[in-house]
What we know:
Layout: H1 12-20, H2 27-39, E1 44-45, H3 48-60, H4 66-77, E2 82-83, H5 90-99, H6 105-117, E3 121-122, E4 136-137
Parallel strand pairs: 1-2, 3-4
Helix pairs in contact: 1-2, 1-3, 4-5, 5-6
Amino acid sequence: xxxxxxxPFVDTNVLLRHLLNDLPDQSPSAQTLFAELExxxxxxxxxxxxVFECVFVLQTHYGVPREAIRKRLLPILAFEHLMxxxxxxxxxxxxxxxxxxxxxxxxxxxxxxxxxxxxGIISFDRGFDRIPGLxxxxxxxxxx
Length: 144
């Protein structure tokens, strides 16, 4: 891929129309776009917020199970001609998201990214303590 700043962003609604194939006036166009991205006929990009919003909408508005969301999204995020920031962490993010039902997708992403970078995470959320390889650091009030 060349300079990604020239690539258009794919909005969440286009990604959803592709995944859900639910609107006859929009889904075929979305299907065509993602076929082009898969074959390299076109380049585009998504942001983490687009991925997060897509997961949230699929789970909360459409009731798609976590495992099905992983199976639908991971192959798309691997398209060579779709620029995805932090692409390498998404398989582990989705693994954690499927395994830990009590964690939001955002928490899973932050946990995996912190673990990947070796930085730990500063949080009051003790749920992070159950994630192997992640160090949670709890903020402390000053001694008075």
